[in-house]
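Progress note, sequence design subtask.
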């Protein structure tokens, strides 16, 4: 009985920690609810409080050998993508690790699972608006990993 109780508690804790996000370009959720986590975002829209730091963590499997990974991050406001200055177009290599926590860099191997983890600041200058965050990792024109999540910047 104790074992079942602990299992149920652990499952509920994992579900509470997960962030429900959509696959890019679709209103379809990821099959594994624990694939993507965003701090303080347990329901949509994510409320991003100004003057705080958020953490994004995403598990992904490389679908081909990859040598370089760059961020493609934008806020879609009224259908118009606005790049996140300071993140969009920058290298993501230092934010990718192997499952055991060792740095993977950007020499990713096909079929291997990786973890992408990065902190980002919600700046005071950001307006309090609703948006859809488009967060992609790219290798040239090839999408390595991507998700979208409704969000709102709050005071």
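Output:
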């Amino acid at each position: 009985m104790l074992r079942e109780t602990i299992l149920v508690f652990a499952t509920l804790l994992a579900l509470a920690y997960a962030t429900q996000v959509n696959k890019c370009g679709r209103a379809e959720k990821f099959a594994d609810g624990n694939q993507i986590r965003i701090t303080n975002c347990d329901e949509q829209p994510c409320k991003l409080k100004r003057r705080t730091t958020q953490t994004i963590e995403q598990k992904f499997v490389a679908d081909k050998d990859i040598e370089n990974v760059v961020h493609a991050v934008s806020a879609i406001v009224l259908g118009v993508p606005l790049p996140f200055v300071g993140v969009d177009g920058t290298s993501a290599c230092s934010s990718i690790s192997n499952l055991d926590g060792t740095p993977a860099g950007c020499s990713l191997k096909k079929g291997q699972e990786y973890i992408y983890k990065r902190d980002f600041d919600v700046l005071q200058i950001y307006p309090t608006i609703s948006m859809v965050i488009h967060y992609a990792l790219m290798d040239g024109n090839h999408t390595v990993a991507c998700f979208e999540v409704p969000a709102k910047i709050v005071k």
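Confidence is low (pLDDT under 50) at residues 1-17. Work on this subtask will continue into the next period as scheduled.
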